[in-house]
Design brief:
The complex is a heterodimer of chains A (about 900) and B (about 110). With about 900 residues, chain A is α+β, with helices and mostly antiparallel strands. Helix content of chain A is about 50%, strand content about 15%. In chain A, the strands form three sheets. In chain A, strands 14, 15, 16, 17, 18, 19, 20 and 21 form an eight-stranded mixed β-sheet that branches. Chain A has a six-stranded mixed barrel with strand order 3-4-9-6-8-7. In chain A, a hairpin with a 5-residue loop joins strand 3 and strand 4. The longest helix of chain A has about 40 residues. Chain B has about 110 residues and is mainly α. Helix content of chain B is about 50%, strand content about 10%. Chain B is built from six helices and two strands; from the N terminus they run H-H-H-E-H-E-H-H. In chain B, strands 1-2 form a two-stranded antiparallel sheet. In chain B, helix 1 packs across helix 5. Classes of the chains: A alpha+beta (about 900), B mainly alpha (about 110).
Chain lengths: ~900, ~110
């Protein structure tokens, strides 16, 4: 029998029963175990000895013993009469008995958990939640790997022929599609003209993503991939177009008979053939989809390619197959002796890769806030533990084991954790709304952010884990009872005092150090942000209104017609009394619309391309410099005599002038702006530098030509132009005037991105501003919590030491001495935390390297100033209880026990 | 008793199994094909509502077989009524399982 028993120990099925038995209420456990063991052993006996059993029989026994788990779960309600329930109801009573204490503790936790939940729901929505397409793991972005071979080099676009060859020959891919992203376009016909985002895609896009229209159909193969480049095919009038659900609802009132109706996109009549399901707007938040034109030239890489892998095929297999295809199709020596290489990146990674670092930083930062909150709560519980010493002692005296008491205390803290989590979840909804309202729209997948079951699970887990984390140390501490001395009158305060003090001190040190790290991180971002805001723009954004306009190819097919339109519009605007200067430009400084061209130039007399001879290439109307307030340093502005027929003229920016002619006069020199068909043009002026692309850019070389002299072959340069108008009144108020002035010239044109220039700049700093605000609010919260922690500890220490202080005062200590005594005690902790925090900040701020502008991540001033701020707050937190200590009346203190 | 009108199919199957002299958990599982995660909780439920009752096998019997004593389930009077009621609704139930020939089946062994 004993031999048999020893064998039983080794059997996994019986082991399982033992393990599962732990959760069976104790009252029923013996009975329960016996039933299951008997069943299993009897079954085994009938089959054979365990060792002789075949695997399938063993597995069957294991499976059966797992059934015990469900059985045990079913018995859980029986716990109501059990110890755990007693713990719980006792815990509730304890919380209700001290409502103020409970409220503070739960609120502190709720702040930490709420902030963490909100940030986690952003991380979850953007990074973790799979794309809303079937089998999203199979979706890949396909691109020609850059020469350096690193993925961070960016995703290159693909030429038409490459895409066609890949799609036709690749067996690893179930589907492949190409698109050119979504660009803003005009939607006309019907009521008001509308500005929409137009995605140009191949018909296979929908099948590749696995999404079908809810109304009508997708593009047919013969409708896409045809070469409808330029406008010659536009006149056919039956280009198919697919609408997004949102546009269909908004503009067409969810008209069920929309299919077959005609809308005008960019002036081109298109027949609606389908409506996509709600929420589908790939790529780039597209509102409508048109078939993409495939350019047969091998030198024009403009397509983004996505593919769905065959199931079971890995990205590596597809990579090598596609590379082989690419090499086959480019056999004759490539230009730079570089064999083409094709690479794949999961679509989701491609979409969200650039925000991953910042989101993870914020998750880390908010984790710090939560830890500080936990430390605070642990501190409060430790303080309370002292007052409950007698209660514990009585329970111990009545026979409660230490384990039982730890469990009781842990149940209480778990309860606090869950209550804090519940309140935190409510807070998270609010915080998340604030976050989403403030978030820059550039963050991808913003619409996927929300509180779903994963976030709920996360919050639940977080509450439970934090409950146990902050409850564990206090529970161990307070369950350590020395019966004799505690139950004796007056002994209570001495017991466990030292250990508890040390623990509370350590918690304060940890809080201070984490708060300092957050403060320094926020400080760096704040400083960087101010630097960014203080950057010299090179122009004066006050009282300037900007607004963009696109002239459709169909209505304005030639460059001459475009020029005539703008000539007329500008003349009309210039007559308006509120206008100081009205101008147009193809790419507004720091704006986002229009043809943003940057490229090489040739200076007359140079044998070959000079390094540094590149610039942003801009086309402007004569009043541009006056409108934006860019100073003209030398020469003259453009005027009405610079026409298409007069000699070509240019104005260059100071940076470019210095680069090209460092010690000479640029005026009168001649440049070729490097487009095909260009001739030499004379530099007639030098203008001040203005930031073009980024506030942080080091230098802004630019070359301006009069829009009237843009060659006929380059209509595309004038397709999207932006008005920049200096007004005498508030620029927003002028928007209506501008609209009506343009409507007088052409009714069908919608203005878009109408905004004062100051707003354009604000948009440019939206990202850093958001990050700065987020980290600042975390660190402010951290600072408050840390200060509360310091205050709590010192205040409690003062209460404990009242007797001692009384003696000191009785022996002649002055109020100043007592103040010093108490503040020193607190500041020791603070300084220790400061040292650790500084070291941590040196190590951790490195992650901010990519986020700061003109600030070192170990900027000594930021480090010093914020350390001082923390010290100041800490001194204040110590001073309040210290003042109370200094007022101790020795007679009262000595009497009090 | 209200309970009998709410008998689920699997509960009815289990009652029928017990009535057919499959008297303990694993036997019921084998004959009914229901998984242990269904059978045991159902047995507990039936026992709580008084449709079945359980008793332990006599120590002696178990000892002779060198195993811990098993728990046997029996239908109560209410249980039998509930089963009869259920059989009207689930007509095939009766034919679902063979009755155990008393002499052969070890599970009917009485202590």
């Amino acid at each position: 029998m004993s031999d048999r028993r020893s064998k039983n120990i080794l059997k996994p099925n019986l082991w399982l029963i033992r393990v599962i038995g732990v959760i069976v209420p104790r009252r029923l456990r013996a009975d329960w175990k016996q039933e299951w063991q008997a069943e299993l052993q009897y079954r085994e006996l009938m089959l054979a000895d365990w060792d002789k059993l075949i695997w399938s029989a063993k597995l069957d026994l294991l499976r059966r013993s797992l059934g015990a788990f469900w059985d045990a779960l079913w018995l859980q309600p029986h716990r109501l009469e059990d110890e755990m329930f007693q713990d719980l109801s006792y815990g509730v009573r304890m919380l209700l008995k001290r409502p103020a204490f409970s409220a503070v503790v739960i609120l502190v936790l709720a702040l930490g958990i709420g902030a963490t939940t909100a940030i986690f729901s952003v991380v979850n929505g953007v990074l973790l939640r799979p794309l809303p397409y079937p089998e999203p793991d199979c979706l890949m972005t396909v691109f020609v790997a850059s020469e350096k071979g690193s993925r961070t080099e960016g995703i290159n676009t693909v030429t038409g022929p490459d895409y066609v060859e890949w799609r036709n020959q690749c067996h690893s891919c179930a589907e492949m599609a190409a698109h050119t992203g979504a660009q803003p376009g005009n939607l006309t016909g019907g009521a008001e003209p509308d500005r929409v985002r137009v995605g140009r895609v191949t018909g296979s896009l929908f099948a590749t993503l696995g999404v079908q229209p809810i109304l009508g159909r997708a593009f047919l193969p013969e409708e896409t991939g045809r070469l409808l480049f330029n406008s010659d095919s536009g006149a056919t009038g039956n280009t198919p177009v697919i609408l997004s659900y949102g546009l269909w609802q908004r503009r067409f009132g969810a008209d069920p008979a929309i299919i077959g109706k005609t809308v005008k996109v960019e002036g081109d009549a298109c027949a609606v053939i389908g409506v996509m399901p709600e929420g589908f707007n790939y790529p780039d938040e597209a509102d409508i989809w048109l078939p993409v034109a495939l350019n047969p030239k091998r030198n024009n890489a403009y397509l983004h390619v996505i593919a769905r892998l065959q199931s079971g095929v890995t990205a590596a297999q597809a990579r090598s197959e596609l590379t082989a295809i690419a090499r086959r199709s480019a056999p004759e020596a490539p230009e730079n002796n570089q064999e083409p290489r094709v690479d794949l990146v999961p679509l989701q990674e491609h979409m969200v890769g650039n925000v991953r670092p910042s989101l993870l930083i914020f998750l880390g930062a908010v984790g710090f806030v939560l830890l500080i909150a936990c430390a605070n709560v642990a501190n409060l519980l430790l303080a309370r533990a002292a007052t409950r010493q007698k209660e514990m002692a009585i329970r111990a005296a009545l026979g409660a084991s230490r384990l039982r008491m730890v469990r009781q205390l842990l149940t209480e803290s778990l309860l606090i954790g869950l209550l804090g989590g519940g309140l935190g979840l409510l807070l998270a909804f609010g915080i998340l709304n604030l976050l989403l309202a403030a978030a820059p729209p550039e963050i991808p997948r913003l619409n996927a952010i929300g509180i779903d079951r994963w976030v709920l699970g996360f919050t639940l887990l977080l509450s439970a884990v934090t409950g146990i984390t902050f409850g564990f140390a206090p529970a161990l501490q307070s369950s350590k009872v020395d019966l004799n001395s505690t139950l004796k009158e007056g002994g209570a305060q001495m017991i466990g005092g030292m250990a508890r003090h040390r623990l509370r001190g350590l918690l304060v040190v940890a809080e201070v150090s984490m708060a300092l790290m957050l403060l320094i991180g926020a400080g760096l971002l704040l400083k960087s942000f101010t630097r960014l805001r203080e950057t010299r723009l090179g122009f004066n954004p006050n009282h300037v209104l900007s607004a963009s306009l696109t002239l459709p190819d169909v209505d304005y097919p030639t460059t001459a017609e475009v020029k005539a339109f703008y000539q007329q519009a500008l003349t009309r605007l210039a007559e308006h009394p509120e206008v100081q200067a009205a101008s147009i430009i193809n790419a507004l400084p720091l704006g986002k619309n229009g043809a943003r061209i940057q490229g090489d130039l040739m200076a007359e007399g140079d044998a070959e391309q000079r390094p540094g001879a590149f610039a942003r290439k801009l086309a402007i109307s004569p009043d541009y410099f006056r409108a934006l307030g860019i100073p003209l340093l030398k020469g003259r502005e453009f005027n009405e005599h610079d026409t298409a027929d007069s000699p070509g003229v240019l104005i260059i920016s100071e940076a470019l002038a210095r680069r090209l002619w460092p010690d000479g006069d640029a005026l009168g020199k001649r440049l070729n702006i490097g487009f095909s068909g260009e001739t030499w043009r004379e530099v007639v002026g030098v203008a001040g530098d203005a930031k073009q692309q980024e506030l942080g850019e080091r230098s802004s070389p630019a070359v301006y030509q009069p829009y009237s002299q843009v060659l006929d072959s380059r209509r595309w340069m004038l397709g999207d132009l932006t008005f920049a108008i200096r007004t005498t009144t508030e620029p927003q108020n002028f928007a209506a005037v501008l609209r009506s002035a343009l409507q007088a010239v052409d009714k069908q044109l919608p203005l878009y991105d109408v905004a004062p220039m100051e707003q354009v700049i604000a948009r440019k700093v939206a990202d850093p501003r958001f990050y700065m605000l987020l980290l600042s609010s975390f660190s402010a919260l951290a600072l408050i919590l840390a200060a509360a922690g310091i205050y709590g500890v010192i205040s409690y220490a003062v209460t404990e030491r009242t007797h001692e202080i009384g003696i000191r005062v009785a022996l002649g200590a002055k109020a100043g001495d007592v103040l010093k005594l108490v503040i020193t005690q607190g500041m020791k902790l603070v300084l220790a935390g400061l040292a650790i925090g500084l070291a941590g900040a040196f190590a951790l701020t490195r992650v901010l390297t990519g986020f700061v502008y003109q600030v070192s991540v170990t900027d000594p001033i930021t480090f010093t100033v914020l350390s001082l701020l923390l010290v100041a707050v800490a001194v204040l937190a110590c001073y309040l209880p210290a003042r109370r200590a200094a007022k101790v009346d020795p007679m009262v203190a000595l009497r009090c026990e | 008793m209200d309970k009998k009108s709410y008998l689920s199919h699997s509960e009815a199957v289990i009652l029928q199994a017990i009535a057919s002299s499959y008297k303990y958990g694993f036997d019921i599982m084998d004959i009914s094909g229901l998984p242990s995660g269904t059978v045991y909780p159902a047995l507990r439920r039936l026992e709580e509502t008084g449709l079945v009752e359980s008793r332990w096998e006599k120590e002696g019997v178990a000892q002779r077989a060198q195993r811990p004593p098993r728990k046997y389930y029996e239908l109560t009077r209410v249980g039998k009524e509930a089963l009869a009621e259920a059989l009207k609704r689930y007509r095939l139930l009766d034919r679902l399982m063979p009755r155990v020939p008393r002499s052969v089946k070890p599970s009917t062994e009485r202590g």
